[in-house]
Amino acid sequence: MDLFRKKPLAIPQNAGAEKLSKTLGAMDLTMLGVGAIIGTGIFVMTGVAAAEHAGPGLVLSFIIAGIACVLSALCYSEFASTLPVSGSAYAYSYVAFGELLAWVLGWDLVLEYGVAAAAVSSGWSGYFQGLLEGFGIHLPTALSGAYNADKGTFINLPAVIIILLISYLLTRGVKETARFNAVMVAIKISVVLLFIVTGIFYVKPENWTPFLPFGIHGVMNGAATVFFAYIGFDAISTAAEEVKRPQRDLPIGIISSLAICTVLYIAVSLVLTGIVPYQSLNVSDPVSFALRFVGQNMIAGLISVGAIAGMTTVLLVMLFGQTRLLFAISRDGLLPKSLSKVSAKTHTPVRSTWMVGSLIAVLTGFVPLDRLANLTSIGTLFAFLVVSLGVIMLRRTKTDLQRGFRVPWVPLVPLLSAAACGYLMYNLGRETWIGFIIWVAIGLVIYALYGYKRSNLNTKK
């Protein structure tokens, strides 16, 4: 058995029904990145991270997580400009490390995108219900949240509906998806800036004392938790086959979107913990709550609208990334070929889009949010770690490979990226690790029973 057979670099792209259309530019990619990154992390997770982990030191948590992401983003940029194909880290590791690790990483990314979408849709539902209540509309308790016998909730109906609506939009075409995303991104950035400009006048420096109530360990736990807020820039690379100038535009989209979002996260965390004592921030809508706390109810309502727009774009990009990932894995034969079938009319993988949407709708409808976020973080951190090491591997084995972007100071930067991701993984809880190991084990069983025999590299022997 050759478990580490590598995919050749010069792979002709499939034609006909499996060909994706190249319509995206650097601005589209930047907007997709911002659309993916700013969402539940800033509008929901900030409160929990401050109250339970970092306190006012949350700003340090965002900086630490941001540094880890910047290092990883540089590594992603080199791979994306060198191998502009669908599949993101899965495709990169297929070339750098071989099929087994590629499958494990692809299976891991299925977890990342799927669970992230489910978690974000849960947050979306919370803000949407809050908006409805502002108009005096109240959903029946049974339909207002994931299954919880103590609270009387059975299914999170708004979350299910938004997942299905986003799935429908994705089947209409990538350009249409990008246009919708750009409008939503403009709305949510405006709302985030409105919060910063309004909230800064209500900041009380005494709320920043003590700055590290949980110590440096709390800051690191907070960094591992808010890492969820940065997830998304890697999804840009899944669109590689739909980019007009991938060698140039992919690095621009990845790095610029991450830079924009990091600055906004730092500003929001400073203002948020300056307005409200950190102990009071363990709520589902901390940004709106902070403005209500100081009597700015009208602006708080606008924040809710922006949060809904923000989380809508996150869902859009996460589901987009998931479908392109399955497209790539299926095209390689490791999953059923039907998942890589592309509509001749819209040039999108319609079948896999509806399959993904349906499965995530079920997940988000019944599984509570607090069990989802850390699973997404550990899956993403693992992917970042492998990609970082993959840069070193390809630099040594493919010295003459044409690279549109080169990571500086190799191997130092990739090693620092891998070490930072590994340390953040270490700081995640035992339950998260158990869930991750179980998921990987399930993936290995699927590969042994299906993927290995049906791989394109196996059938071409």
Please provide a written account of the structure:
The radius of gyration is 21 Å and the shape is globular. It is built from 16 helices and no strands. Residues 11-17 have low confidence and may be disordered. It has helices at 26-37, 40-54, 58-82, 89-96, 99-134, 157-170, 174-199, 215-230, 246-275, 286-293, 297-331, 350-366, 373-397, 412-426, 430-454, 456-459. The chain has 461 residues and is an all-alpha fold.
Key attributes of the depicted protein:
461 residues, mainly alpha, 16 helices, 67% helix, globular
**Tally of alpha and pi helices:** 16
Q: Give the biggest sheet.
A: none
Strand content: under 5%
Per the principal axes of the C-alpha atoms, what is the gross shape?
Answer: globular
- Which ranges are low-confidence, i.e. pLDDT below 50, for 5 or more consecutive residues? 11-17
- Number of beta-strand segments: 0
Instruction: Classify the helix fraction into a percent range.
Output: 55-70%
N-C termini distance: 13 Å
Radius of gyration: 21 Å
N to C succession of SSEs: HHHHHHHHHHHHHHHH
Pairing-aware structural class of the strands and helices? mainly alpha
Mean pLDDT: 87
